[in-house]
Write a structure and sequence with these properties.
With 579 residues, the protein is mainly α. Helices cover 71% and strands 0% of the residues.
Length: 579
């Protein structure tokens, strides 16, 4: 989580001459000039002036600080908004309910993974409740948003019950906060329970309410249920909107049913519902999914003809099509799309740049990841936890362990980013890939501690990375010990981990352990690639016969021969197991 006491300033304004010098501002006019800039929505200058005048904070009024905070949120500079809020408290002001609510609402709606802003919003919600006690329905609804944002649904339900105790305080807006939260969790049963509760309370669902229920079914691939929910809404006299049709189209596309997605598009158009930019973007996804880039381009042209401007979402659809190919040529095309975005006045977000960085790593073009990261810095976008994790992975694949360590350290210090289990897993892998197994084991210990403290499942990726490290070093006992340790803490070894172990055991002639790993794979219902091991055994036996020069060497192998013959029997190869 972001520590609110160390929020850094935004990247706005790096001029050599300070803004307050340019504007001719002194400490006596500071408040009035800043207030005027905020009222005129001249956010860039307002923030630069504020940042350059940190030694004059005592001369600012509460209203000016609140206006600046509002401008920060409108311009989605959440780190700056938190800075202003903390400065407000530091200068002796006691934030009122409106200021708290404004900030909490903005932070709770922040969607970027790894930023920590939603967690910070919940922290401020707890502060608001402790500081101001009895809150009005509007503030309580914002508190519900904060709770839902960090997955504290029980607390959100308690607030709902509190609102219901007040006369008509729990309206459709209140229910929709919880219902939308449950929709993101795909918890349809919880949504249906809230529908029942609404009926008892006399609260009529809106199309937003039904859209959340439809979305929860669509995300689970239950398109029959999603369509029936639409029919329920229509029977209640609630007309579908563009978002309703878009949800259903997206659900069909996720199921690979492009035909039904196009039928839903036609139904929307014939119903007189005007497609939104998101609707167009979803259908562009459909065309890309079918491999029909010409149709995707026609849809893009149609969007522009109707007065729409391609958004980041639209460009991201095209970007995803290129990065999914995992080829160097497609990655270069994706970079050209990035150029096109900027030329169109669309600033790529951290999420967009993360997507491209991740694709470079997946395509074994890790050096490109660092170039995209440098571009992120040039654009003034801040890195989040996922950015640093990708960077660690990229350095690890290039054998640049010191750079991976530096990236992890920077993540730990960056107030805009939050360290999660994925970053720990990546760091374990970085040590293991470099053959630094002692460091990898220590990092694995730290990862297990982090997983325990955050109620996360035992980290299969981290243990898998250590096993892979020992496999590369052909250290059978250490690899087996790691698998057993993972199992002892409640972990379920995955197919990749066990397959690596079998591969190592076959190559080193430890067929007893190989058979144990085979049984483990069969117990978890995994299918073992017998043909691969048949080929390995055949080649190893050919090499063994070629190397064999005397009877003593043959006798040395007799102790493990029974396990080898047993393994060959299991594979269906000629063997002497029963002899």
């Amino acid at each position: 989580m972001i520590d609110s006491t160390i929020i850094v300033y935004s990247s706005y304004g790096n001029e050599n001459v300070s803004v307050r010098t340019k504007l001719g501002v002194d400490k006596n006019s500071f408040d009035s000039v800043l207030k005027s800039l905020c009222e005129k929505s001249q956010y860039g200058e307002a923030w630069s002036l504020y940042r350059d005048s940190s030694d004059w904070l005592a001369f600012l009024s509460y209203n000016t600080l609140q206006n600046l905070l509002s401008q920060c949120l409108r311009n989605r500079n959440f780190a700056a908004a938190v800075t202003v809020f903390e400065d407000m408290k530091m200068t002796g002001f006691r934030p009122n309910k409106v200021t708290f609510s404004m900030l909490i609402s903005g932070l709770a709606k922040h969607r970027r993974r790894g930023s920590g802003f939603r967690e910070l919003g919940y922290k401020y919600w707890r502060e608001l409740r402790a500081m101001h006690g009895n809150l009005d329905p509007a503030a309580l609804r914002i508190g519900m948003q904060a709770c839902v944002g960090v997955g504290k649904f029980d607390e959100a339900e308690e607030i709902l019950n509190l609102l219901e105790e007040r006369d008509a305080a729990a309206d459709i807006r209140t229910y929709n906060i919880l219902i939308n939260g449950y929709a993101k969790k795909r918890d349809t049963s919880a949504i249906e329970s809230l529908f029942d509760k609404m009926r008892v309370s006399g609260v009529k669902p809106s199309i937003t309410t039904y859209n959340a229920l439809i979305s929860s079914h669509a995300k689970r691939g239950r398109m029959g249920e999603a369509v029936r929910c639409l029919e329920r809404a229509e029977s209640d006299g609630i007309a579908a909107d563009a978002w309703t049709y878009t949800i259903i189209m997206k659900g069909h596309i996720n199921n690979g049913d492009f035909y039904q997605a196009k039928q839903t598009w036609r139904q929307m158009v014939e119903s007189g519902v005007k497609p939104t930019l998101v609707s167009f973007s979803v259908m562009i996804d459909c065309a890309i999914g079918e491999g029909d880039m010409a149709h995707a381009e026609r849809l893009l042209s149609q969007m522009i003809e109707q007065g729409g401007h391609p958004s980041e979402v639209t460009f991201n659809s095209i970007l995803r099509a290129y990065v999914a190919d995992n080829s160097l040529e497609s990655l270069h095309k994706a970079v050209r799309v990035l150029d096109q975005m900027q030329d169109s006045g669309v600033i790529p977000s951290t999420d967009t740049l993360n997507m491209l960085m991740s694709a470079t790593v997946s395509a074994e073009q890790s050096a490109l990841a660092e170039k995209v990261y440098d571009r992120m810095q040039e654009m003034g976008q801040y890195a989040d936890g996922y950015t640093y994790t990708i960077l660690i992975q990229a350095y690890a694949r290039q054998g640049r362990l010191p750079d991976a360590v530096t990236a992890f350290e920077n993540l730990s210090k960056d107030p805009h980013a939050i360290v999660d289990i994925a970053a720990y897993n990546a760091m374990v892998d970085a040590f293991a890939r470099s053959g630094e197994m002692q460091a990898a084991e220590k990092m694995l210990d730290a990862t297990c501690t982090f997983a325990s403290e955050t109620n996360t499942e035992p980290p299969v990726e981290a243990f898998g990375a250590v096993v892979a490290g020992y496999v590369r070093l052909k250290m059978v006992n250490a690899a087996v010990k790691t698998v057993r340790r993972f199992h002892s803490i409640g972990g379920q070894p995955d197919v990749q981990m066990l397959d690596q172990l079998i591969d190592l055991c076959v190559r080193t002639g430890d067929y007893k352990v190989a058979m144990q790993a085979v049984r483990a794979m069969e117990l978890v219902g995994a299918e073992v690639d017998k043909e691969k091991y048949k080929t390995m055994i055949t080649r190893l036996e050919e090499k063994s016969r070629a190397r064999r020069s005397n009877q003593s060497k043959l006798e040395e192998k007799n102790s493990s021969k029974v396990y080898m013959e047993r393994f060959k029997f299991w594979l269906g190869l000629p063997n002497s197991y029963y002899q």
